[in-house]
Automatic annotation (TrEMBL):
Gene3D superfamilies: Tetratricopeptide repeat domain. The lineage of its organism: Bacteria, Pseudomonadati, Campylobacterota, Epsilonproteobacteria, Campylobacterales. Residues 28-177 form the Outer membrane lipoprotein BamD-like domain. This is Outer membrane assembly lipoprotein YfiO. Transmembrane segments: none annotated. It comes from the Bacteria. Keywords: Lipoprotein, Signal.
């Protein structure tokens, strides 16, 4: 019983002192929050960096450090393969800071994030269609950008991915004897693009084929 009581007391002390050390921070200068974001990123703690960003934009919404922190966090999440969070930061930046001169760079980062995340959304029609649209808009808006050649490559890759998706969906409808639906998807295939690039089909594991295609 003495050992049990001692362990309970030790556990209570650890909780008390642990909570005492973790004070709620607020009313800090923008530079403090920004530096804390950088430190957490360097430590690999992106969740902590996101938390500090919330404080930065809450207390200093008009600070020039806010858009800079957005870009840094977007790129940090992209490096960690956290593409949804990366896209969120880039989207917010593009919505809120349209007057800044680096729009082509941020739009390129968003398109690149979609491309890296493509493997996780290979069967999402809406995701592919939206990514193609964003790439088209970029190429129309920034034909002379230094990032245009990279976006052109990504644009073609997404188009080829969309064609492969259409073929897979048509195959499903073919097995279900739904000829009208099958023909609808086959009619969307850009045969000229296929002839030009002759892409190799993506490898699909047998267990994916068994349950999906």
């Amino acid at each position: 019983m003495r050992i049990y009581a001692f362990m309970c007391l030790l556990f209570a002390n650890l909780i008390f002192f642990g909570c005492a050390k973790k004070e709620v921070e607020y009313n800090k200068p923008a530079s403090y929050w920004y530096e804390s974001i950088i430190k957490e990123i360097n430590f690999g703690n992106l969740e902590g960096a996101d938390g500090y960003f919330s404080s930065l934009q809450s207390e200093h919404i008009n600070s020039p450090l806010v858009p800079e922190a957005m870009l840094i966090l977007g790129e940090a999440h992209m490096e960690k393969d956290e593409y949804l969070l990366a896209a969120f930061y880039f989207d917010e930046y593009l919505k809120r800071y349209t007057s800044l001169a680096n729009q082509d760079y941020v739009r390129y980062l968003k398109i690149l994030t979609n491309f890296y995340g493509f493997k996780n959304y290979s069967k999402d029609q809406e995701f592919i269609a939206q990514s193609i649209k964003e790439a088209q808009n970029f190429l129309q808006s920034y034909p002379n950008s230094r990032y245009t050649p990279y976006v052109e490559y990504i644009y073609i890759k997404f188009q080829l991915g969309q064609i492969e998706l259409y073929k897979a969906i048509a195959n499903v409808y073919d097995k279900q004897d739904k000829d009208e639906a099958k023909d609808k998807y086959l009619s969307r295939i850009n045969e000229e693009l296929l002839t030009r690039f002759k892409p190799k089909p993506s490898h699909i594991p047998w267990y994916v084929k068994l349950f999906n295609w």
